[in-house]
Design a protein that fits this description.
Strand 4 and strand 5 form a beta hairpin. By secondary structure, the chain is of the alpha/beta class. The chain has a single domain, classed as 3-Layer(aba) Sandwich (Rossmann fold), CATH 3.40.50.
């Protein structure tokens, strides 16, 4: 009873995962928020993000609350972690193998209870390779940058983004893609048995209905 949704930033993972979880009354777990929260907490404590051992210590002791808000060690960081700076910081944290191992263990504990929609970049390949439902969402780089620019959960979306800002966002996403796809541990890649969905120009309701239909068939849900 677990749905794994992977894909790059701006492909629609968050919106689709939250909507699916609400429709099925499953728990929604945004694993990307965990890496962002660890990066925020490390910076808050003055820890060098390049120091793998120090960041592992931060991740090991951190407490997470992941719902409509993201809270780490009592700090509500929901808005603070959705910035270009935290995108870059999370990418650094995500490249540390020991940190990933620590957070993957946490994520597996969250998923073992079942009835979970878990989104990220390595859910179907590493965290839950035997998940009965695996989805890989994607979109063109231009579409992903446009969505991120309009996303109110991110800093740019709160004030609107100019064409120059959209270009900057596209560059930042390209850098994050490169980091995620080339890291030595758990690189961003599509699982062989994941259903690939290109969301470019596709209404979110259509994507959600496609995933819901698949989930209900494979999980035998009514």
């Amino acid at each position: 009873m677990l749905i794994a949704i992977d894909g790059p930033a701006g492909a629609g993972k968050g919106t689709v995962a939250r909507t699916i979880a609400n429709a099925l009354q499953f728990r929604h777990v945004d694993t990307g928020a965990m890496y962002r929260a660890v990066a925020w907490l490390a910076r808050h404590r003055g820890v060098d993000l390049a120091d793998s051992a120090a960041v592992v210590d931060v991740a090991r002791d951190a407490s997470f609350e992941l719902s409509t808000r993201v809270v780490v060690d009592g700090h509500d960081v929901t808005g603070d972690i959705r910035t270009p700076e935290m995108d870059a910081a999370a990418a650094i944290v995500a490249r540390h193998g020991d940190v990933r191992q620590m957070l993957v263990q946490r994520q597996r504990e969250m998923g073992r209870a079942g009835r979970v929609v878990m989104e990220g970049r390595d859910i179907g390949t590493v965290v839950f390779p035997d998940a009965p439902v695996k989805i890989y969402l994607d979109a063109t780089p231009e579409e992903r940058a446009r969505r991120r620019a309009l996303d109110p959960a991110h800093a740019a979306g709160k004030q609107g983004a100019s064409p120059d800002q959209v270009g900057q966002i596209a560059q930042a996403l390209a850098a994050r893609d490169q980091s995620d796809r080339t890291r030595a541990v758990s690189p961003l890649t599509r699982a062989d048995d994941a259903v690939y969905i290109d969301t470019t120009g596709v209404p979110i309701a259509t994507v959600v209905e496609t995933v819901l239909t698949l989930a209900r068939q494979r999980l035998a849900l009514q």
